[in-house]
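Anyone up for a design puzzle?
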């Protein structure tokens, strides 16, 4: 059955927090995309309004992740080589990072976004490796980038959040419950609200809402949600995200649910070494590359 969030949790989560609205530039791009014959020049001009966003987009497009035959120098060419929908998903994710980062130079913020970028990259490569389709692979990438966005909001309200998060992992706590006890919300719920506000699809939104609730997702999620969730958790594990963010190792969530997560992807433990090589060849350091 399809997952839904309790509305009382949503109402409670919004107290004291402001969900960043979808930027006008993205609205402008989406309006053009939805036309019968979208104009790539109009879309490119809209993205190029922000030099930082355009430059970072081209940097990502030219990374080993996308394996393009030649270097891309303009947003318009990126649209042609990547495809319009894929580029828009990428830009969406990049703008979220810029929006929530807001010039912060905090160490935790840098760790958060570096980790999210690494998880997003790994999710894309893993989904491509399993031949799950171009659109689904792109959605896995978006999920990896967006899934911890709620952490940035919590951190903006509490500078002690990194220490509390570390304590939660050390205590083997359920992260969402731990956060709700301290902040009356969780980064999962806040991330869900951001995803909804920014027009992400229901699969991505639901996986974000329950990404620290494997027992719920694996029992009640749709097949595609379970796959996306499994890709996300495998990417987190392989890139050692918990230790990067909190300094805690091992990740007790993975230790407890790894067998079920791997089952969704029809994987055995011994195959992770080969996957580690696949990620490394794509430029992604991971715990399985020796």
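Challenge accepted. My sequence:
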């Amino acid at each position: 059955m399809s997952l839904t969030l309790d509305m009382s949790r949503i109402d409670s989560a919004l107290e004291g927090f402001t969900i960043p609205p979808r930027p006008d530039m993205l609205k402008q791009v989406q309006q053009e995309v939805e036309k019968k014959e979208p104009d790539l020049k109009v879309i490119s001009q809209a993205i190029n309004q922000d030099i930082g966003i355009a430059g970072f987009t081209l940097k990502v497009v030219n990374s080993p992740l996308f394996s393009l035959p030649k270097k891309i120098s303009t947003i318009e060419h990126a649209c042609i080589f990547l495809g319009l929908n894929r580029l828009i998903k990428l830009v969406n994710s990049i703008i979220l990072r810029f929006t929530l980062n807001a010039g912060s130079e905090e160490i935790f913020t840098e760790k958060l976004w570096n980790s999210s970028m690494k998880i997003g990259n790994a999710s894309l490569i893993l989904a491509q490796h399993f031949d799950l389709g171009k659109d689904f692979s792109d959605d896995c990438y978006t999920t990896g980038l967006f899934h911890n966005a709620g952490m940035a909001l919590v951190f903006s309200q509490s500078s002690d959040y990194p220490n509390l998060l570390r304590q939660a992992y050390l205590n083997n706590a359920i992260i969402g419950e731990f956060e709700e006890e301290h902040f009356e919300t969780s980064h999962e719920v806040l991330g869900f609200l951001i995803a909804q506000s920014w027009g992400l699809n229901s699969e991505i939104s639901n996986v974000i809402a329950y990404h620290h609730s494997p027992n719920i997702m694996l029992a009640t999620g749709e097949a595609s949600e379970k796959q996306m969730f499994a890709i996300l958790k495998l990417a987190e594990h392989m890139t050692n995200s918990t230790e990067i963010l909190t300094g805690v190792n091992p990740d007790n969530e993975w230790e407890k649910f790894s067998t079920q997560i791997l089952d969704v992807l029809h994987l055995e433990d011994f195959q992770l070494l080969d996957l580690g090589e696949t990620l490394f060849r794509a430029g992604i350091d991971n715990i399985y590359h020796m």
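A detail worth pointing out: The chain has a mean pLDDT of 87.
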